[in-house]
Amino acid sequence: MTVHQRDWQAFVTPGKDGAVHMDLAVDGITCAACMGDIERGLKRLPGIRTARVNLTSQRLAVDWVEDQTGADEIVAELTRLGYKAHPFDPASQKDRQDRTGKELLRSLAVAGFAGMNIMLLSVSVWSGNATGIEPETRDFFHWLSALIALPTVAYAGRPFFRSAFRALASGRLNMDVPIMIGVVLAVALSVVQTVQHQHHAYFESAVMLLFFLLVGRYLDHNMRGRTRSFAENIAALKAEVAARILPDGSVREVPLSKVSAGDLVLVSAGERVPVDGVVETGMSEIDQSLVTGESILVAVDRGQRVYAGTLNGSGSLQVRVEAASGATLLDEVNRLLEAASQAKSKYVRIADRAARLYAPLVHGAAGLTFLGWLLAGMEWQPALVIAISVLIITCPCALGLAVPAVQVVASGQLFRRGVLLNTGDAIERMADIDTILFDKTGTLTLADPELCSPFDLQDPVVRLAGRLALASRHPLSTALVRATGAITPLPEVKEVPGAGLETMVEGATLRLGSPQFCGASAEQIEDALREVPGASLLAIRFGDGPVQLLPFRQSLRPDARAVIDRLKAEGYALEIVSGDTEPSVAGCAEALGIAHWQAGMKPAQKIVRLEDLQQSGHKVLMVGDGLNDAPALAGAHVSLSPVSAVHLSQAAADAVFLGDRLQPVADALRLSKRARAAIEQNLWISGLYNVIAVPVAVAGFVTPLMAAVAMSASSLIVTANALKLRWGEGRPETGAGPAHLPAEKAEG
Fold first, then answer.
1. Banded pLDDT at 332 (limits 50, 70, 90)
2. N or C: the chain end with fewer CB closer than 10 Å?
């Protein structure tokens, strides 16, 4: 069989300041301690500038000086540390994560089923020893337990054994090493005692130990798996090819990498713009929510700028390229996202910090116990039984369940209030928040525009315009259809790209579209905007009659003012950071009583504001929905996004909230504080359990079976404490949860 060596140099890309960059997917990362091992280990290599591990996606980003260290040396160092590297590919990484989850679930099912059967056999032996069981019957039950336990441990223990062997091979200890030692010793000693026809065997201890650990490991993996890869969402927005217009006027489709600044490209109706550039020919409407966060389509014609990733409407455009692949605004958003998500991934969970101290303490306690009893004159076999009891009774089950158990209960309570968690540790981070940044459009306001000035909807011209609007998918046309209740379209409608619609009705022309298209004067437009600042205007003209200007604006969420007042009363500092126009943002801030706001902000500017607050010691919650919010959502201490948000923003956010109300934001903050308190209580319970149980086990008063029972009891106590989150919560407020969404929309 031929072994093919991978050319890692092929995956290296140019970085900043003369450095090079490489992204790797790393197998075997299970906790924050693994992140520290990798980052510290790689930084010992010469020339390494940064090494950042994303705990959720298991992605390693490395920047280094190429002439000091090679890509192969970086991968070799990872191997020496006990981790296997692959070229980072979002699709294949997702497949690997799915396989890991399925393996954990299968192992959990096998351990649970086997554990119940072995416990029944152990109870029979225990009661038989008390009443005088026949030795042959007892040995039969022990061998039957061995027949179940040995293959179960071999199968269900694989996730822990692999991790432990990798750690030992690289000269490290992790939480899985004492688990492996305890399980293997318990099984081996049980086999020896069964061969020697002794009264006790401890197969159930090993299997139940695995079962409870697998519960915690699977819950933790499941919560982390909820987070989606940013790269997958960015890829959906990026065009792979562009239609380049050659000097002779012909059009040729070429890879985006072959397009340079100064080229002319054709963007057909309905396509995503592949480059940043300026329109040379054509008229259309562009969805520029990537840049502004505003969902209203923007009319563009000659001389106006368009951006890669934005969606072209009904017209065809010829665009002169200013920035192509790798240098567009969309690429900048991607870079901001990566930098922000890497920074956030350095948040170390409470349980991970506690777990770093666990392995050396457990090994030390068990080893000293064994040596101490030997020195006291005890035979090696009973001394080993006591040492195994110490290993099992100090097992990290309660510690491993402390966080996931609360996460699962809290996420269920949040779901009842319309909040869906993407990341498990969002609960811990949300409890730290003191400052909240809100986007405006689609966040404080509803996503769909509404007619915001009283008009006679019985006016026959307005009703005709509603019927004409049925021919367009423009958000303002859709809003007019809703307002007029039109259901019958007009025939023979002509669409003028980037301008509007027109048709003939009773020999006269009916027009619906931009004020300029319908012949509105500059004075009329100014008067309408003065009356309704920040509005989007839709014009109607029938024949030679006057132009009617209908102002549309996204209305505030129905409970926005009440929620903002409550958050201010609870001591949170509030700001609006929006890409929308100044009049629109100012009006929203005034209506909600928010003193600090900024308008016209680009993605990088939102990141700068976020970093300024964080450097001042503030813990910031970002609430936003647009593509321009995605980097800030990823970089904030914690983030929320409405369900109406674009997919990239939902992926960048730590949680998504449902419905038309803002109440889920306040609910999430309140519940997170209670959940964090429960996590801290669980960790204290775990610590107190060990303080009491370990000395008793060291003194020899605990058998491995009793240790397994005590370990199980501690896990159940931790789980019960997490369930108090459910018991302490009343019914969610009406309209606050997913079951009430239709009522919300009707009320809103």
1. low
2. N
For the chain, what is the largest distance between any 2 Cα atoms, rounded to a whole number of angstroms?
A: 113
**Tens-digit pLDDT profile for residues 344-379:** 444 445 555 555 556 567 667 778 888 999 898 888
What the block records as the tokens of 127 is 């009661």
- Mention every residue, 6+ apart, whose C-beta is less than 8 A from residue 321: 259, 260, 261, 262, 263, 264, 265, 275, 276, 277
Tokens 């030997």 sit on residue: 374
Which residues make Cβ contacts (< 8 Å) with residue 63, sequence separation at least 6?
Answer: 15, 16, 19, 20, 21, 48, 49, 50, 51
- The tens digit of pLDDT for each residue in 385-401 reads 788 778 777 765 566 66
Contact 500, 513 (CB under 8 A): yes
**Spatial distance between the Cα atoms of 589 and 593, rounded to a whole number of angstroms:** 6
CB 445 within 8 A of CB 556: yes
Domain 8-88: state its class. Answer: alpha beta
DSSP 565-615: HHHHHTT-EEEEE-SS-HHHHHHHHHHHT--EEE-S--HHHHHHHHHHHHH
Torsions phi, psi of 480, nearest 5? -65, -40
Domain boundaries, given as residue ranges, for the chain: 8-88, 101-227+346-404+679-727, 238-327, 410-445+556-676, 447-555
- Active-site positions read 439
The sign one gets for the Cα dihedral 450, 452, 457, 460 is: negative
What is the pTM (predicted TM-score) of this model?
A: 0.58
Q: What separation, in Å, do the N-terminal and C-terminal C-alpha atoms of the chain show?
A: 67
Using an 8 Å Cβ cutoff, are 310 and 336 in contact? no
One-letter amino acid for residue 407 of the chain: Q
As its CATH architecture, domain 238-327 has Distorted Sandwich (2.70)
Reduced to 3 states (helix: H, G, I; strand: E, B; else coil), residue 663 is helix
Tokens, residue 150: 């040995």
Query: Residue range 14-37: average pLDDT?
Result: 74
Of the CA atoms within 13 Å of residue 201, those in its CB half-sphere come to 32
- What value does the mean pLDDT take over residues 502-511? 91
Contact (CB, 8 A) for 553 and 295: no
Residue pair 287/268 in contact by the 8 Å Cβ criterion: no
- CATH fold for the domain made of 410-445+556-676: Rossmann fold (3.40.50)
Helix locations, 170-302, DSSP H: 176-195, 203-224, 230-237, 289-292
Instruction: Place 230 in a pLDDT band, splitting at 50, 70 and 90.
Output: very low
The H or E element spanning position 159 is helix 158-169
Which of 707, 704, 705, 700 shows the shortest CA–CA distance to 373? 700
> Binning pLDDT at 50, 70 and 90, where does residue 2 land?
very low
- Percent of residues in the chain assigned helix, strand, coil, to nearest 5: 55, 20, 30
The pLDDT, as a whole number, for residue 569 is 93
Q: How far is 422 from 443, CA to CA, in rounded Å?
A: 18
Asked whether 524 and 547 are in contact (CB, 8 A), the reply is yes
- Enter the tokens of residue 114: 């086997």
Q: Which residues contact 42 (CB under 8 A, 6 or more apart)?
A: 48, 51, 62, 74, 77, 78
Residue 152's nearest CA partner among 101, 102, 204 is 204
The listed CATH number (3.40.1110.10, 3.40.50.2300, 3.40.50.10330, 1.10.3720.10) that belongs to domain 447-555? 3.40.1110.10
Q: How far apart are CA 648 and CA 232, in angstroms?
A: 9
Q: How many CB atoms lie within 10 A of CB 227?
A: 22
Task: Evaluate whether 94 touches 229 at the Cβ level (below 8 Å).
Answer: yes
